[in-house]
């Protein structure tokens, strides 16, 4: 394989559809490899745009906008970094010869909770929570009766916990359904109704595929463990503290689902452990937010692996080097041009690193940065990451 020189004839070019914090790290890894990077998002000054050669601000739900910049740039690979992208346009682009990472169909399935459940639970028979699909309050009622209370409803399409509503009893159903679909992406009225399980812990099995030149192989990272006080990401760590048999099960489900989705690149397979049940939950066809910890824990991060796979390059193995943790830095309120205070205090803690994403504006609970910390144990790493994150203020 040949890599040319960025900005000159023969350069290898990657286009990022979505330029958030994960995209920024992908862009940095691509830059390190001498790749020309084009960052796209719906707003200007998005994180990856700060480290790309060029940027475009477009509505990625608009098929003609998407196609016209792809045709203008003619990238060697298109990396989808967010879910809110017109997937039919991606399929058309793939049909006309563009390389979508991991592949257009996988992106379409993973953004849709119903399609993904059909694939994982019904086709592949991978264990999941008990669930039903519904498209009216009446159908939710029927599903709740079958599944039992409490149950959790989620819109067919949404991300970061948007539209997740817990239903404890019969008379909450009507409002819960309305509330849930009001947070849906797009016009769909469909929801998934899931049994609400008591979570002991959650794992992300980062699973990647690359072309060896002699076929595609599927491999996994050591598991990342995380805990959420709510439906969004707060902290994650490696190594995971679960038993080997849980890891083995989790990895086998991850490999099964990812092999079915196909293509190349990294996937974040979310696994829930509840009592002695190990359940597949969902999968991102891209690096995962909980996997930011791999920047501190491993010799090769999830971002580097994704770039290599996208370029057709191998990663025969990744190694865990040290216990590490990551912890988010959240904003408290809406603000243009936010300022960050107390970095000097946070960085006084040995083994701590800070990544600030450079988002041009904040709102309540928006993720603005992340602390990475390593330690001699997971507990020590977590403690340092929490402490440092608490010191940093966003104003
Ligand atoms: N059936 C469930 N029972 C209990 N908690 C759940 C259930 N489904 C999801 N969760 C919790 O909510 C989080 C977000 O749910 P998920 O389905 O991953 O949605 P999102 O696409 O918003 O990440 C999970 O990581 C888990 O902590
Ligand atoms: Mg999730």
TrEMBL record:
Keywords noted in UniProt: ATP-binding, Ligase, Magnesium, Metal-binding, Nucleotide-binding, Purine biosynthesis
Residues engaged in binding Mg(2+): 270, 282
Catalysed transformations (reactions): N(1)-(5-phospho-beta-D-ribosyl)glycinamide + formate + ATP = N(2)-formyl-N(1)-(5-phospho-beta-D-ribosyl)glycinamide + ADP + phosphate + H(+)
Single annotated GO MF: magnesium ion binding
UniProt xrefs under Pfam families: ATP-grasp, PurT_C, RS_preATP-grasp-like
GO annotation (BP), single: 'de novo' IMP biosynthetic process
EC identifiers of the protein: 6.3.1.21
GO cellular component, one term: cytosol
PROSITE patterns membership: ATP_GRASP
The keyword Nucleotide-binding appears for this protein: yes
Pathway(s): Purine metabolism; IMP biosynthesis via de novo pathway; N(2)-formyl-N(1)-(5-phospho-D-ribosyl)glycinamide from N(1)-(5-phospho-D-ribosyl)glycinamide (formate route): step 1/1
Residue sites binding ATP per the record: 113, 154, 194-197, 202
ATP-grasp domain span: 118-311
Positions annotated to bind N(1)-(5-phospho-beta-D-ribosyl)glycinamide: 21-22, 81, 289, 359, 366-367
Domain of life: Archaea
NCBIfam families cross-referenced by the UniProt entry: PRK09288.1, purT
Task performed by this protein: Involved in the de novo purine biosynthesis. Catalyzes the transfer of formate to 5-phospho-ribosyl-glycinamide (GAR), producing 5-phospho-ribosyl-N-formylglycinamide (FGAR). Formate is provided by PurU via hydrolysis of 10-formyl-tetrahydrofolate.
Protein family (similarity comment): Belongs to the PurK/PurT family.
Quaternary context: Homodimer.
Protein name from the UniProt record: Formate-dependent phosphoribosylglycinamide formyltransferase
The organism of origin for this protein: Acidianus hospitalis (strain W1)
């Amino acid at each position: 394989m040949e890599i040319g020189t960025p900005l000159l004839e023969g350069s290898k070019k990657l286009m990022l559809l979505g330029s958030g914090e994960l995209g920024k790290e992908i862009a940095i890894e691509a830059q390190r490899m001498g790749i020309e990077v084009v960052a796209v998002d719906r707003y200007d000054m998005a994180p990856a745009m700060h480290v790309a050669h060029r940027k475009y601000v477009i509505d990625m739900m608009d098929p003609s906008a998407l196609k016209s910049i792809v045709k203008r740039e003619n990238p060697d690979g298109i990396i989808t970094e967010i879910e809110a992208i017109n997937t039919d346009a991606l399929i058309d682009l793939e049909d006309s010869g563009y390389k979508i990472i991991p592949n257009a169909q996988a992106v379409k399935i993973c953004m849709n909770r119903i399609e993904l459940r059909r694939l994982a639970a019904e086709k592949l028979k991978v264990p999941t929570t008990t669930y039903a699909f519904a498209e009216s309050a009446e159908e939710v009622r029927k599903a709740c009766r079958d599944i039992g209370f409490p149950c959790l409803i989620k819109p067919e399409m949404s991300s970061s916990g948007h539209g997740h509503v817990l239903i404890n009893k019969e008379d909450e159903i009507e409002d819960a359904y309305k509330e849930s679909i009001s947070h849906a992406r797009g016009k769909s009225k469909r929801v998934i109704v899931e049994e609400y399980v008591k979570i002991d812990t959650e794992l992300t099995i980062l699973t990647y595929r690359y072309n060896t030149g002699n076929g595609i192989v599927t491999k996994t990272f050591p598991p990342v463990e995380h805990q959420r006080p709510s439906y969004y990401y707060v902290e994650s760590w490696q190594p995971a503290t679960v038993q080997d048999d849980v890891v083995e099960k989790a990895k086998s489900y991850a490999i099964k689902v990812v092999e079915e989705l196909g293509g190349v690149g990294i996937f974040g397979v979310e696994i829930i452990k509840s009592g002695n049940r190990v359940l597949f939950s969902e999968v991102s066809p891209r690096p995962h937010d909980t996997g930011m910890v791999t920047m501190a824990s491993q010799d090769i991060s999830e971002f580097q692996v994704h770039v290599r796979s996208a370029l057709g390059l191998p990663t025969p193995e990744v190694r865990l080097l040290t216990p590490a943790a990551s912890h988010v830095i959240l904003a408290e309120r809406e603000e243009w041009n936010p300022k960050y205070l107390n970095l000097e205090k946070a960085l006084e803690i040995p083994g701590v690193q800070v990544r600030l994403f450079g988002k041009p504006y904040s709102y309540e609970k928006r993720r603005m940065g992340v602390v990475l910390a390593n330690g001699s144990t997971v507990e020590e790493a977590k403690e340092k990451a929490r402490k440092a994150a608490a010191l940093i203020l966003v104003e």
